[in-house]
Specification:
Layout: H1 2-19, H2 29-32, H3 46-58, H4 62-78, H5 85-89, H6 92-102, H7 111-136, H8 152-168, H9 173-176, H10 179-192, H11 198-217, H12 219-222, E1 234-242, E2 245-253
Antiparallel strand pairs: 1-2
Helix pairs in contact: 1-6, 3-11, 6-8, 7-8, 7-11, 8-10, 8-11, 10-11
Signal peptide: 1-20
Pfam family, one: PAP2
Keywords: Signal
Amino acid sequence: MLRIGFICLLIFLDVCHAQAQIVDHIDSSRILLDDPAYHFHYKKLIIPTVFIGYGVASLISPSLKELNSSTRYETREHITVGAVIDNYMQYAPAGAVYGLNIFGVKGKHNLKDRTMIYLTSQVYMGAMVIPTKRWVGEIRPDGSNTRSFPSGHTATAFSSAQFLFHEYRDNNFWLSISGYPLAAATGIYRIFNDRHWVGDVVAGAGIGILSTELAYWTYPMTSQLFNRKHHNSTTFISPYYQDHALGIQLAKVF
């Protein structure tokens, strides 16, 4: 419940902050065509492809399977299962984007646009993670179920870190990369908590990065769905919590 309240507070304060300022309304469609962040480039696929490829290989390669097992053995000797920090840390980089804007550290996009991009990245991520978990059916290290591959927590963490990177890399590079250590720590804790193998975490990192890249590449198209000049509409953004899952819902009334 603390996590829910914290994220609700961040979004509420960010909305109030945005409404309190005089903002120049710029036609963003003229800017999107020139910004490289929205352009597909094969080089941006290299890291997520390598990570996902490693994860897939870990499902069938004897040597990588052995690495999974030996890593689990070592962590079981020195780490006590039970930490819950990974449940919160996965959202920290995305929360930082909203928190920094509250305190006047401007990112790339305004509240509506960055929320649209982040939500889109989560849709892409879920579309990749959830079916893959069911299709692969890998048993978790603790034997609790067959939904180990890939790591959803790690995918969420790295999608958030990539989101922070894109929003701040033009203004403050060191700030923009600060989410990656948190994302990596999330994946490490998933291993420490005996919930995932190493390959699951690496694949999750690749999926998370890819999800956010897809969200930025498709933003020029998705933004048109919410910026039609000839329609009067209202957009509502609010967090929700249901069946032990935390998220943000967006509703548009025409």
